[in-house]
Amino acid sequence: MTEQTGDRRVVTNLAVSLDGRYAKPDNHLDMSWVMPYAVTDVARDHLTSLWEPATTAVLGRVNAEGFLGFWPTVIDMEGADPRDVGFAKWLVDVDKVVLSSTLDEAPWERTTIEDRPTAEVVAELKETGGGDILVPSSPSVIKALLAADLVDRLAVTVFPVVLGGGPRLFDDGLPAGQWMMAGQTAGELGELMLAYDRVR
Asked: Taking a C-beta distance cutoff of 8 angstroms, is the pair 169, 143 a contact?
């Protein structure tokens, strides 16, 4: 468990294709390529391991609208996997920070809207008390945090799909640095759940 005063871990999670893309080239919101793998036991256990120690979620606006439009409906969904229900309840109850220049007020409970640079907001959060700060699948936020060298644990789910184009997770010009393997699990469909800790 992370210490309760200052120096919180920033944990990011994103699914990528074998060719390093996080979205299709023609439709960034089409996540159909992810779905067969996102509902496996390995993927659900991986996500659970990330959100359970976290007490703050940081999201970009687009992801917040998608997540908070869907996940609360899972709580009372008949036959829903208990791990999905757990994540849905966590997302509703956790303190959320949504980075947006277009939202004036939050349409969701326990949410703060921030129209400031991502690195500035997250650096301030790191100095407060609490558990991990989780960035679940918000590419623009994760890329900004990688560029600022603020990611402490990088969780990457690699799905056995080649998208052939689309935006990449890792841009040229990122700060050079070393990472240490913190966990690896392979699923029966060929998916890989990887976690790396930043060596500082």
From this structure: yes
Sign of CA dihedral 190, 14, 145, 3: negative
Report how far residue 86's alpha carbon sits from residue 88's, in angstroms, rounded to the nearest whole number.
5
Specify burial of residue 4 (Cβ count, 10 A radius: 0-12, 13-18, 19+).
Answer: exposed
Q: Which residues on neighbouring strands pair with residue 131, listed in sequence order?
A: none
Distances (CA, A) of 9 to 39, 122, 132, 167: 26, 10, 5, 26
Backbone conformation region of residue 97, classed left if phi is above 0, alpha if psi is from -120 to 50, else beta: beta
Distance CA 62, CA 171 (A): 21
Strands 95-99, 54-60: pairing kind: parallel
121 within 8 A of 149, measured Cβ to Cβ: no
**How far, CA to CA in Å, does 120 sit from each of 10, 112, 126?**
13, 15, 10
Report the length, in residues, of the chain. 200
**How does pLDDT run along the chain (200 residues), one tens digit per residue?**
333 446 799 999 999 999 999 999 998 888 899 999 999 999 999 999 999 999 999 999 988 998 888 999 999 999 999 999 999 999 999 999 999 999 988 888 999 999 999 999 999 999 998 999 999 999 999 999 999 999 999 999 999 999 999 999 998 999 999 999 999 999 999 999 999 999 99
